[in-house]
Amino acid sequence: MAAELTAHQLIDRHRPTLDQALETIRTRAYWSPHPEHPKAYGENGSLDTAAGKAAFDALLGTRLDLGQPGTDDWVGGEVSPYGVELGVTYPHADVDVLLPAMRAGQKAWRDAGAELRAMVCLEVLKRISDRTMEFAQAVMHTSGQAFMMAFQAGGPHAQDRGLEAVAYAYAEQVRTPDTAEWTKPQGKRDPLALTKRFTPVPRGIGLVIGCNTFPTWNGYPGLFASLATGNAVLVKPHPRAVLPLALTVQAARAVLAEAGFDPNLVALATERPGEGIAKTLATRPEIRIIDYTGSTSFGDWLEANARQAQVFTEKAGVNTVIVESTDDYQGMLSNLAFSLSLYSGQMCTTPQNLLIPREGIRTDQGAKSYDEVTADLARAVDGLLGDDARANALLGAIVNPDVKARLEAAAGLGEVALASREVTNPDFPDAVVRTPVIVKLDGAKPDDEAAYTSECFGPVSFAVAVDSADHAVRLLRHSIREKGAMTVGAYTNDTQVEEAVREVCLEEAAQLSLNLTGGVYVNQTAAFSDFHGSGGNPAANAALCDGAFVANRFRVVEVRREA
């Protein structure tokens, strides 16, 4: 197939970006090629907010034909958490036709080499970046995120994570040289001489199983890591969040075709209501890599049953913050209030358990009892969300009925320190918007243990009274080991307590944030610098992003001959 985008053009366009990404993952400094402010995307142009909204509106009620082989039906049914029926229909695939078609283009993709594959991936990301405002609307109306978060997390931050995966993939592939001349002295005899060629070869087809809450942010690392290492990629979105990943597949297929490769290297797999194709796809022999974000139960099933594939999972955990002491009490309360409220707590990194000594804590405002800390935190959340306009901008909408049910049930688990309230969204009156609930529990009572040791995904937090800092550290260790944690936070100005928490996190492989009181929050991570998850505790078996996340997506095959 004739290429409209030549290798030379792609390298000229994107090699500087790749080089900067490689340098940044080495230094762990701040850098992003994708602006995170809407004004950077132009005014009254193709990239601005109004144009993005118009592009999204134009998609509503349409058929998104990707030109895939094996299409046997058209499916849809997405309804925005804000109450909008999307009405978009997508191709439903006969996988017995689609999977062989996806494999057909892998030889040329493999032979293209690591650099050209990386350049094609960066061109895909550039096309997606050009449509950031459109993607922001798609993410907002499938995940329930408020617009600004959907724009940032679903747009530039997701694109950063995709680029980060490409950089790691490239670095791992070029670690081994393409060729080598090998000579072994044999004393008086002629030396042995071989010419060796080393080729990174893909495992097969990668399957990306998307999530409802962060379809692009969680989907892009696996998608681009597999594609950059030579694999075809089949994207299976969550049935309530198809559109953002369908648009991603659309962009990838267009770039692949323009670059002279088979567009079927990237394809979409959607499902009819109740069809549940993820298990069927995950155990197909053609599927050799799986990336999954979602519930622990299905993640565990994949790890146990998809034995033919390399499985990367981000499941769930019980995230904990120890509150022992602070020299910025108001800063701590503000930081925690924002962390508990952002996107209605519907993030895998949101704190759930706040472990607070029952005798209280030391602060720059004097001693504060457990009851005072809990009440002050409740007031901080209430103050943050007291204005409905600001509350809507931070909370977004409840993504599904299960989250709402957990929120409503939580009030019956203990004494309520902060009751959840309903917030009306004037722009979307059908949206379900709720403020967080904070429930007081006792860490010494077995009856309370069942509540705070189980994940309660959504805007639910437990203020757990503990006997001491040592007790808090013991509970932290037990929680990470048994349930896992994506994040851990601690507030302390006691060096011994800090070291004890740090040691637990090192031993149990959990990412730790200490004494955050400003504009950085425990539930946010920056691509190229922060690791999302560790892969070392039950919450996830992989980290976004490190060498281990990409290195096992390909193998190196050697061909040697006598020189």
TrEMBL record:
Keywords: NAD, Oxidoreductase. CDD domains: ALDH_PAD-PaaZ. It comes from the Bacteria. GO terms for biological process: L-proline catabolic process to L-glutamate. Gene3D superfamilies: Aldehyde Dehydrogenase, Chain A, domain 1 (3.40.605.10), Aldehyde Dehydrogenase, Chain A, domain 2 (3.40.309.10). Residues 92-520 form the Aldehyde dehydrogenase domain. One of its GO terms (molecular function) is L-glutamate gamma-semialdehyde dehydrogenase activity. SUPFAM superfamilies: ALDH-like. NCBIfam families: PaaN_2 (TIGR02288). This is Putative dehydrogenase. It comes from Streptomyces ambofaciens (strain ATCC 23877 / 3486 / DSM 40053 / JCM 4204 / NBRC 12836 / NRRL B-2516).
